[in-house]
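Researcher: We plan to redesign the surface later, but first we want a full-length starting point. Tokens attached.
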């Protein structure tokens, strides 16, 4: 993208850790702190509904064991939306959010569109469904933001998901997420048509920033929660900072 339309500061999973991640309550709280762009995680239910959740399994952020009686982990993507929609996705965080439901991508799209907020959708596939998840999430994102001036920004650690997104909705900007600089990362990002690289913030230095900018891509960082780290990234000339600390950093 020649013109990068997104704000520099991005609220991680809605409001970082101040509210239950990836719920509408979290996005509302992030907005109350002045944030205009949010990051979320999107995966598919067994019946193909894009919904917001980071983990592969349900246990950490829902009351799935209480509802189902199962002792072992349950894969979120193996459940129908009719089951997922009944779960409590807030009580694990604090009593104040007890009863908060899981959100669909459509729920969040309505909120962002009505308030003119920007969104980074991380495609978070259930293992084995990488390309299909990218296809469906991109198709839904294109539909939900069809008349928007600025589209959502799609990212993933999985190149297969980004390929699926490119096949389905090539007009939506994409970014490759990296936790390490594995061999061939920049070539892969180029092959799937990425507009940005989104790194663990510790990976950025003057050389990697120059390399990515030289390839015509933007440099974004996750998850930056300390002032010294944020200042270093600003000094390096990076383009976006994803943070949990919506209470510390004024998005400006």
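Model: Full-length starting sequence:
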């Amino acid at each position: 993208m020649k013109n990068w339309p997104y704000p520099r500061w991005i609220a991680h999973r809605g409001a970082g850790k101040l509210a239950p991640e990836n719920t509408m309550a979290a996005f509302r709280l992030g907005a109350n702190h002045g944030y205009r762009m949010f990051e979320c995680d999107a995966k598919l239910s067994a019946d193909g509904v894009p919904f917001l959740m980071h983990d592969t399994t349900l246990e950490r952020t829902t009351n799935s064991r209480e509802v189902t009686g199962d002792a072992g982990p349950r894969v979120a993507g193996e459940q129908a939306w009719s089951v997922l929609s009944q779960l409590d996705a807030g009580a694990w965080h604090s009593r104040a959010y007890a009863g908060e439901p899981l959100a669909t991508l459509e729920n969040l799209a309505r909120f962002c569109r009505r308030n003119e907020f920007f969104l980074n959708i991380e495609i978070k596939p259930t293992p084995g469904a990488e390309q299909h998840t990218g296809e469906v999430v991109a198709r839904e994102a294109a539909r939900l933001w069809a008349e928007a001036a600025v589209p959502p920004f799609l990212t993933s650690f999985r190149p297969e998901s980004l390929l699926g997104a490119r096949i389905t909705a090539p007009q939506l900007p994409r970014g490759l997420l990296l936790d390490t600089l594995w061999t061939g990362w920049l070539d892969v990002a180029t092959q799937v048509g990425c507009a940005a690289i989104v790194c663990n913030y510790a990976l950025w230095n003057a050389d990697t920033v120059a390399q990515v900018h030289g390839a015509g891509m933007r440099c974004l960082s996750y998850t930056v929660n300390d002032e010294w780290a944020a200042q270093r990234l600003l000094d390096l000339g990076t383009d976006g900072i994803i943070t949990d600390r919506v209470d510390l950093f004024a998005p400006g």
